[in-house]
Amino acid sequence: MSKKTDSNSYTMIFAIGMVLVVGSLLAYLASSLKPNIDENKRIEKQQNILYAMGVNENDASSASFVSTSVAGSEFKKYIKQQLVIKGADISEDEKAYLIDVKKEKSKAKNGGVRRLPLFIGEKDGKTFYVAPIRGKGLWDAIWGYVAMDQNMIVQGAYFDHKGETPGLGANIKQRYFMDDFIGEHLLDASGNFKGITVAKGNNDPKNNDKTDYEVDAIAGATITGDGVSAMIKSDLKLYVDYFKTLKQ
What we know:
The chain is built from 6 helices and 8 strands. By secondary structure, it is an alpha+beta fold. It has one domain. A 6-stranded antiparallel sheet has the order 2-1-3-4-5-6. Strands 7-8 form a two-stranded parallel ribbon. A hairpin with a 5-residue loop joins strand 5 (about 140-150) and strand 6. Helix 1 crosses helix 2 (about 70-80).
């Protein structure tokens, strides 16, 4: 006579029970940890924005954020205004940095009006305009923050990714790549938006020419580089009308 525990019905009931127990435990953990996760995301966004405008702890070669313990106070110190641009409307919102760029891009694709966050910072007597950008790399999402002056000349940049190839596309968050964007012009002499292309075979590998609308590509990371080019051109172009108002 077989034991009850050897029956198929027992196995199924046991499996279902385990799924329910583990599922409940994971749901509880996700719920209890959500405040901490949200707080970490909030701090990370502040660090990203500050990094782009040059408020960081970089050494001679590596990229490093301000510490999490001071990110909030540094953000309040350097970011003087947070704007939300929605069509022709421009408003101030002290929580603009929490706007989900991914959701806003999806909204625009579905015919809605996208909200564009813009962060105005001051450092060493200079004004910085920091905009978030988001796109697609080789494997998954890529994103960043670009700091500009009133003429849409890049003053700093920060890029990150979800799953690009280590040593190749993942290098978009390395300092040597991000620093190449500093000084690059986004507009031509007539004020037309040109963007910046991450160019393979760029004739300016030392990036001395800041008006060629190109930076040198990362070897072996063509698709990721194309993604960086595309998100810069598609997202930063949306801010051109705002920058025109600065000259009026």
